[in-house]
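Forwarding these from the shared drive since the link keeps breaking.
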Amino acid sequence: MKRQGYSLQANRKTHEGGDHPDRDGQFEFINNQTKSYLNNGQPVISVDCKKKELIGNYKNGGKEWEVKKEPVEVNVYDFMDKEFGKTVPYGIYDLYKNEGWVNVGISRDTAKFAVSSIRTWWEQMGSQCYPNVKEIMITADGGGSNSSRSRLWKMEIQKFSNETGMQVRVCHFPPGTSKWNKIEHRMFSFISMNWRGKPLVSLQAIVNLIGATKSSSGLKIKASIDENIYEKGLKVSDEEFHKINIEKDGFHGEWNYVIKPSDE
C-alpha cells in the first residue's frame, strides 16, 4: 500500500454542511460592521459555548511533558460521575482588547445561560473597559443557545439592553460556518492547547487552567464558576416576543438585527 502512495490517516473535520448562497455576503457584512464599531471605540464580542467536558479524573486529549514512563493515570472508562457531572464553558472574546471571559456552568447551555454569561462579562470586565459606550456588537453562531431563531435569546438580549441602557447589534454566522467565529481560533483553541493532557479533575481546576491560558499575541482570559441551574425548554409567548424592541437589517434580517432598550 505504501508503494502505491497510501498511508494511515485519520478523518479530518472540514465539512460543516451546505454553503448558503449569501455566505460570503454575510462574512463581508459582519466584517464591515465590526470595523465600524471598533473604529468608533465600541466593543465587539464573539460568543459561543465550548465543548462540554466531563469533570473528574478522565483522559484529556493531547500530550504533556511528564517523567519518562510515568504518565498521569486516569480512569479507564469515561462514564460520567453523577456527583461531578459535566461543565458547560460559555466564552466571550473581546476582539479589540484580545481578552476573554469564560463562564463555567454546571447546568445546561440555554439562551438564558448564554446571555447571563454575557452579562457577567459586562459586569466583571466590559463595563470597566468601556465605561461610556452606548452600543455593543455581538457575533455568534446561528445555532445552539445563541441561535438566530431563538425567541428566548432575543428576549434575554432585550433584558440585557434594558439593564445596561445599551443598543445591542447581533450578527449571526450563516449555517455551516461556525468555525469562522473569532472566539474559536483566537481563544478556545488556546484553552484546549493549555489543558491538553491534563485531567479536568474539578471545577476549580478548570477555572485555573482557563485563567492560565496565554498566547504570543498577549491573550488574557478570566473565568468564574456559575452554579445556577438553567431550566430547559422555556417558551416565549407571542405577546412577549412582540414587545422586543428589535430592528432587523435590510440584508438578512434573520441574521442581522439591533435590539434597543425599551420601556416594557
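-- next protein --
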Amino acid sequence: MVSTAASLFWIALCAVIAPLLAGLVPRRLIPEVVLLLALGVVIGPGALGLAAVGEGLEVLHELGLGMLFLLAGYEIELRKLTGHGGRRALVTWLICFALALGLVGFAGLIGAINAEIAVAIALVSTALGALLPILKDNGQLDTRLGAAVLNHGAFGELCPIIAMALLLSTSVTLASIGVLVIFAVVAVIFTLPAVHLRHGSRAHQIITGSSETTAQITVRLVVLLLVSLGGLAIAFDLDVVLGAFAAGFVLRRALPEGDESLEHKLDGLAFGLLIPIFFITSGMNIGPQAIADNPLGLVIFVVAIVVIRGGPIYLASRMDRVPHTHDRVFSNLESVQIALYGATGLPVIVAVTAVATKSERMTSENASLLVAGGAITVLLLPMTAALLGLRGEQRETEDSAATTSR
C-alpha cells in the first residue's frame, strides 16, 4: 500500500511538471489540465502504481473540486444570466439535454449503455472552470466571444448540477425539489451578512485591515463559505459541487464589483495547490485498461458530446442578431469557436460519474471511459478553437494589408 506522504510527493511533482510541459507547447495549445490528468494516470494504480488516493488525499480532492466550482460560480454575474444572452444559453442547454435524453434512451433500449441519466448529464456539461484559464491565456475572456462562452458555460455547469440533484438523488424527485428550494433559501441567507456589512463599520475595518496581514481573513472567510455550503449540500443529500457553485454565487453577490486582491489570493490557493490535486487524483482514478478495451466507445462518446452539446450552441450563436440592425453578432468562425468551447466538458463529468459509481448505477470501467472522453474534449476542442482564432486573425491581417495596398 502506497503511503499518503509518498502519494503526495508524486502529486506535487506532477503539479510542477505539468505547467512546464504546457509551456513548451507553442501558444500553450495543450491545456495544463489535460497534462495533469495524464500524469495522474501515469502515477496512478492503473499504471506505475506510485500513488494512491487515500482518505487524506480524498479530502484534498474534494476541496480542489469545490474550489474549481466556486471560482466558476464567482465568474457568473446574475445580471448577465437573466439577460438576452443568458436566456438564449438556458434554452440552448434545455434543447441539448432533450437531445441527450433521446439518444441515451434509445441506446438504453437496445442495451448499448446503462446509467442513462448520468450519461445524458455528462453529454451536456461545459467545463467552465477549466475554460477560464484557457480563455484568459488566449485573451478572450473579456471579449464578446468570451461573454457568450461564459453564458453557455454557466448553464452548462449549473443545470447539470441541478439535474444531478434531481435525477440522481436517492430520494424521490418531489422531495429533491423541496430540498433544493430549502438549500437555495439557506444559501441566500448566507449572503446577508456580507451584503449588509457597512463600509466604515468596526467589523468592516477589522476584515479589510487584516486582509493584507498574516491573518488573511478574507481568504479564510471564503474557505469557511466553501466548506459551510459544501457541508450543507452533503447534509441535504446533494452533491458537494452544488454547494461550491452556490458559494461562488454568494461571493459574487457579496463583491459585485469584484476584489482584485482577493481574486489574486484565491487564484494562488486554487491553481497553486487545490485544483492541480483535483485533476491529478481524478487522473489516478482513470483505468487505462478500460479505455484500451473499448476505444470505439470512447470515440462515440466524444463525437456525441460535440454533436449534442456543440451543435445547438453553434446554431444559437448563428441565430443571434444585433438589435435594430439584425446583423449577425458572430461570424461563422466565431460561432464554431463558441460551440467548441461550449462542448468542452470535464469537471461535471468527473462529478456525475463519481455520484453514479457511488450509487452503483455505473461501473468504474464506464466511468473511466467517460472521464477520459471529457479529458479528450479539454485537449482537442479548445486547441481547435484557438487555432481557428489564429486563422481568423491572420485572415483579417491579410485583408487589412490588401485594403491598405489598394
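DSSP finds 18 helices and no strands in the chain. Residues 4-170+267-397 form a domain with the Na+/H+ antiporter like fold fold (CATH 1.20.1530.20).

- D.
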